[in-house]
Amino acid sequence: MKEISNTVRVRFPALSENESVARVITTGFLMHQGVTPAALADIKTVVSEAVTNAIVHGYRGRDGARCPVFLELTMYADRTLVVKVRDKGRGIEDIEKAMQPFFTTDREGERSGMGLPIMDAFTDQMKITSSPAGTRVVMKKRLP
Ligand SMILES: Nc1ncnc2c1ncn2[C@@H]1O[C@H](COP(=O)(O)OP(=O)(O)OP(=O)(O)O)[C@@H](O)[C@H]1O
Ligand SMILES: [Mg+2]
Fold it and tell me: Which of 45, 48, 53 to mutate to test the pocket of ligand 1 (most atoms within 8 A of CB)?
């Protein structure tokens, strides 16, 4: 993995319109990497799910314009892609529970509880660290 071929780091406020900004940045980042359309779709999905979680859960009940979300994309020379998404929100109480399909703390019935299971399934490795000071999700995927 070691040798980095490219890396991009962005910070944006927790506004829902920035979900699509994150997707466009991801597309731009991968455009020059010869990624298959299927792999690109998967990666855009995991970025979008992670960013959405930061915005809607991490900063629930807060003024998103004042809450930072961090996205980092790194491509290594061996074509391992590492995606990091971080927020400074409320944190996940029980990560194991949160990872289960259909688990959601959403009360409005808009969410299906499938974001984390999808992120896990679409990548080779996913690690979550979380505390009441924030959440960090690191995902790795080896591209063909
Ligand atoms: N960044 C985060 N900060 C705080 N809580 C989070 C964060 N990400 C996930 N969670 C918690 O984990 C739960 C499960 O997340 P997951 O993405 O799987 O489902 P969801 O967001 O509720 O629904 P969906 O992703 O299908 O719209 C969330 O309901 C929320 O309680
Ligand atoms: Mg989600």
Answer: 53
**101 C-alpha vs ligand 1 centroid, how far in Å?**
11
Q: Are 23 and 48 in contact (CB under 8 A)?
A: yes
pLDDT tens digits along 48-94: 999 999 999 999 999 999 999 999 999 999 999 999 999 999 999 99
* Residue 1 scores a pLDDT above 80: no
CB of 92 sitting under 6 A from ligand 1: yes
Write down the CATH number for the domain with range 4-142.
Answer: 3.30.565.10
Domain ranges of the chain: 4-142
Give the separation between CA 18 and CA 38, rounded to whole angstroms.
23
Token readout for 102 is 């259909």
Q: Hey, what are 67's tokens?
A: 């809450």
